[in-house]
Amino acid sequence: MINPRLTVVGAGPGDPELITLKAIKAIQSADVIMYDALVNKALLEYASKKAELIFVGKRKGCYAYQQNQINELIVVRALRGNHVVRLKGGDPFIFGRGAEELEYAKEYAIEVAVVPGISSSSAVPAYQGIPLTKRNASESFWVITGTTKSHEISSDIALAAQSTATVVVLMGMGKLSEIVSIFTSEGKADTAIAVVQNGTREDEKVGIGKISTIEAIVAEKQLSSPAIIIIGEVVNQRVNLDTMYEKANQASRIKQRAIA
Known about the structure:
Elements: E1 5-10, H1 21-29, E2 32-35, E3 52-55, E4 58-59, E5 62-63, H2 67-78, E6 83-88, H3 98-106, E7 111-115, H4 120-127, E8 141-145, H5 156-161, E9 166-170, H6 176-185, E10 192-197, E11 205-210, H7 214-221, E12 227-231, H8 241-259
Parallel strand pairs: 1-6, 1-7, 2-3, 2-6, 8-9
Antiparallel strand pairs: 4-5, 9-12, 10-11, 10-12
């Protein structure tokens, strides 16, 4: 009988190509895959045809399973001699509750492992050409959950608003008005801010403005969850990637014509 195993795997921020080789190998070897709502389903194509696929995520506040049920499901499936892969969006150790699931499984003598993933907190800004740190603009960055377990806004946001650091807020769209109020009270109404919905995916949408204007921009562009909020001077340092790519392509075409 195969030893029961659990591998908690980071699926990356949404683009199915932003996943590690180690993660793909784990998916391919899985007997059971339990995946979240933010996981790109294209990644499930790496799974064996015999693998059991179980959706355990939530959509618009509706849970397929509560966390204690997910923990129990992992144990039940693993103790049947299966390799269970818990596939999570982004990185499983950044607001992903991956550590909780590993700890629970270990209590039942289940072999555990983790495969880190590319976090949306860094990948989504990068796809928009926004550097989280840049000389003369930002020396550090905060990554904060917008909504705590008690459904309140994180108190760390008020602390971050007092700093000069870039602030990245995950799961914060429901608290956007409160975030705006906090930064405004710190005299930062003119601070640059970006909201990126479905970051790195084909249906990505973005709104860029100031703290004082972002709520109107979000309403105009109909931006909603899942989205990431980026606040700080680095938003003004945004690199126009489309322009860069077009210039590179033009230079390549000119060179090819010259050779011909």
